[in-house]
Amino acid sequence: MKVLVVEDDRSIQMVLELVLTRMAKCEVFLASEGRQGLAMIKEHKPDVVLLDLMLPGMDGFEICQRAKEDPETKQIPIIFLTAQPQPAAIARAMSLGAAAYLIKPFDPSTIVSQINEALAKARAPQIG
After folding, report:
1. CA 50: distance to chain centroid?
2. What stretch of H or E contains 95?
3. Sheet bearing 2-6, strands edge to edge
4. What pLDDT, on the 0 to 100 scale, is given for residue 127?
5. 106, 110, 115, 125: which has the fewest C-beta neighbours closer than 10 Å?
6. Axis-axis angle for helices 87-95, 60-69 (nearest 10)
7. Which of 39, 43, 84, 82 is nearest to 57 (CA)?
8. What is the distance of C-alpha 100 from the center of its chain?
């Protein structure tokens, strides 16, 4: 199971990498900025993407929109993981095709359960 984490905060990257490799036995790829994240979605074709909203270079909305417009990546579940709790941001993310929208700070078990829920909807094998 491959998970791409697109997050510019190194401490959050490290926590997610630890949770996903230890709890869920995932192969984790990390991107620190928007353009890199979009390129890694296309290159690695992960099973799921954890995506921050506020990123340097390109925001999470644009990454999600571009990934969902690409026939090669549109089926990949994208879970927003952000500190932006505004209803308008949540509605926009979901309208772009996001599988879920989680607010930081997060509970590691919630991340795993949300990934499994997104994978179940996409009819993909689940983790951990």
Report:
1. 2
2. helix 87-95
3. 27-31, 2-6, 48-51, 78-82, 100-103
4. 76
5. 125
6. 20
7. 39
8. 9
